[in-house]
Write a structure and sequence with these properties.
It is built from 12 helices and 22 strands. By secondary structure, the protein is α/β, with parallel strands linked by helices. It has a 4-stranded mixed β-sheet with strand order 20-21-1-22. The protein has a 4-stranded mixed β-sheet with strand order 2-13-15-14. A 4-stranded mixed β-sheet has the order 4-5-7-6. It is globular. 55% of the residues are buried.
C-alpha cells in the first residue's frame, strides 16, 4: 500500500487535462458494436483497462470477464453482453464487489436472460435479451440507463426505458445519447424516459475523445483557493455534467475565465453557498474542500448516492475534513460546512478512492503542516499521471 505526502505549495500554470473516461467508456462500447474504428486518446487507467478488457473477452468468446473496479464497465457491459446472447460470468475486484447490480437482477429475466447473482458480482448471464419496456429506478444510478440504451438499439424490435423515479445524474445519460448519435444511433427522450428504435446499426468511425471536466475540477479548485491554474483540452459545449464546475466556482465567488478550450481560475475571495449535487456527485469531494477554505456556510445536498461509490464518499469527506480541523457536519444527503477557518495537516485515509485522494491532495496544499494520505495507488483508477501534473504545476507531492 502506497501513500502520498503533500507539502504546502501553490499550483500555477497550464495543464492539458486527460481525455474523459466517461466519454471513452461509451465510445469504446459503440466502436465495439460497430465492428471497427479507433477511439483515441484514452489513458491507461484501471477503469479504461476494465472496459477494454471486457470487450476483448466478448470478442474472444470467453466465459468470464473482469470489470476490475469499474462500476461503469460493470453496468454498461452486462446488458450489452446480454443483447449479444452471451453466456458469461462478470467478475470484479476490490470495492466493486460491494457495489450493487440489483436493477439487472430483476429486469433482465423479464426479457429472456437467465441471471445467477446474489446482488453483487460475480454475475452469470445466459440467454438472448429481448426488446420491450424496461422500468428503472432513476435514483440508484444513471449507469443502468446508459447500459440499457447501448444494448437495446441493436435488438430487432423497439424498446422503452421507463423511469419509475426521477433520473439522477441525467447529464451522464445525455452524454450517452450524444455519443450514440455520433455513431449514427438515435435515442428519443420522452416524458417518461427514452424510446429506442430496434435494428439500428452503429456506424464505423475514428472517434476523438474530449477532455475530462471531472478531472479539471481539482486543478481549478486549487487555483481558486490559492493559485492560478489553467486547464486546457476541454470542450466548452460538452454534455458532461461536471462542466458545471465552472458555475459552482463562480457561485463561491471564484475568478474564472473561459475560452478557447481552456478554463482558468485564480486566487479569489471565496464565500460559502448551497450546492445541489444531484447531477454532479463526483464533484462533491473537491467542492467540500473548496467550501472548507471559503468563508461562511456551505450546504451540499442531494448527494445520497455518494454513499455507494468506491467509498462512502459522504463519510470519507466528513471524516477527513474533521481530521484537518474543519467545522463540518454530516447530513442524510450531504454535509454542512462552516468554512474559512483554515485547515491543519493530518494523516488521512484515502479509502482506496481516487476522488478522495485527489480532493485531499488539494486540501493539503494550503493546510498548516504536512498532509499524508494513504492508498495513493488508487490514483491509477482514473488519472495515473495526476501527481506528475500536480508537481509540474508547482505542487509538492511525494508518493511512496
Amino acid at each position: 500500500m502506497s501513500q502520498v505526502t503533500i507539502k504546502n505549495s501553490i499550483l500555477q500554470g497550464r495543464v492539458q487535462i486527460p481525455p474523459s473516461k466517461s466519454a471513452a467508456h461509451r465510445a469504446l462500447i459503440c466502436s465495439f458494436l460497430s465492428g471497427g474504428g479507433s477511439v483515441k486518446p484514452i489513458i491507461n487507467s484501471k477503469d479504461m483497462q476494465a472496459t477494454v478488457g471486457v470487450i476483448e473477452s466478448l470478442k474472444k468468446g470467453e466465459s468470464t470477464a473482469d470489470c476490475i473496479e469499474s462500476g461503469s464497465t460493470m453496468r454498461f457491459m452486462i446488458p450489452v453482453a446480454a443483447a449479444l446472447g452471451r453466456n458469461i460470468t462478470f467478475n470484479g475486484q476490490g470495492s466493486l464487489l460491494s457495489r450493487t447490480v440489483g436493477e439487472y437482477i430483476h429486469l433482465l429475466p423479464l426479457h429472456g436472460v437467465d441471471v445467477k447473482c446474489d446482488g453483487h458480482l460475480p454475475m452469470t448471464i445466459s440467454g438472448q435479451l429481448r426488446n420491450g419496456s424496461f422500468e428503472v429506478d432513476g435514483s440508484v444510478s444513471s449507469q443502468y440507463v446508459t447500459g440499457l440504451l447501448l444494448a437495446l438499439a441493436s435488438l430487432e424490435g423497439d424498446s422503452a426505458v421507463i423511469m419509475k423515479t426521477p433520473l439522477q445524474s441525467k447529464p451522464y445519460v445525455d452524454m450517452t445519447v450524444k455519443v450514440m448519435a455520433d455513431y449514427g444511433v438515435s435515442v428519443r427522450e420522452t416524458d417518461f424516459g427514452y424510446l429506442i428504435k430496434g435494428g439500428q446499426q452503429f456506424k464505423t468511425l475514428d472517434y476523438i475523445v474530449e477532455g475530462d471536466w471531472s478531472q479539471s475540477a481539482f486543478f481549478l479548485v486549487a487555483g481558486a483557493i490559492g493559485g492560478d491554474t489553467t486547464v486546457c483540452g476541454l470542450d466548452l459545449n460538452s454534455t458532461q455534467g461536471d462542466k458545471k464546475i465552472v458555475d459552482v466556482l463562480k457561485s463561491f465567488g471564484a475568478d474564472v475565465t473561459v475560452g478557447d478550450g481552456c478554463v482558468s481560475c485564480k486566487k479569489s475571495e471565496l464565500h460559502g453557498t448551497d450546492v445541489d449535487a444531484s447531477d454532479i456527485p463526483d464533484l462533491v469531494p473537491v467542492i467540500a474542500v473548496l467550501a472548507a477554505y471559503s468563508k461562511g456556510r456551505t450546504v451540499i445536498y442531494n448527494a445520497e448516492r455518494l454513499r455507494y461509490k468506491e467509498s462512502n464518499r459522504i463519510e470519507s469527506v466528513v471524516t477527513n475534513l474533521k481530521a484537518m480541523g474543519a467545522d463540518i457536519e454530516e447530513t442524510d444527503d450531504g454535509m454542512i460546512i462552516n468554512g474559512g477557518k483554515g485547515l491543519k495537516g493530518a494523516k488521512l485515509n484515502g479509502y482506496n478512492d481516487h476522488r478522495i485522494l485527489m480532493a485531499f491532495s488539494v486540501a493539503g496544499l494550503f493546510a498548516q503542516g504536512e498532509t499524508v494520505i494513504s492508498d495513493a495507488e488508487s490514483i491509477n483508477k482514473s488519472y495515473p499521471s495526476f501527481f506528475e501534473d500536480y508537481n509540474m504545476l508547482g505542487g509538492k507531492a511525494d508518493v511512496i
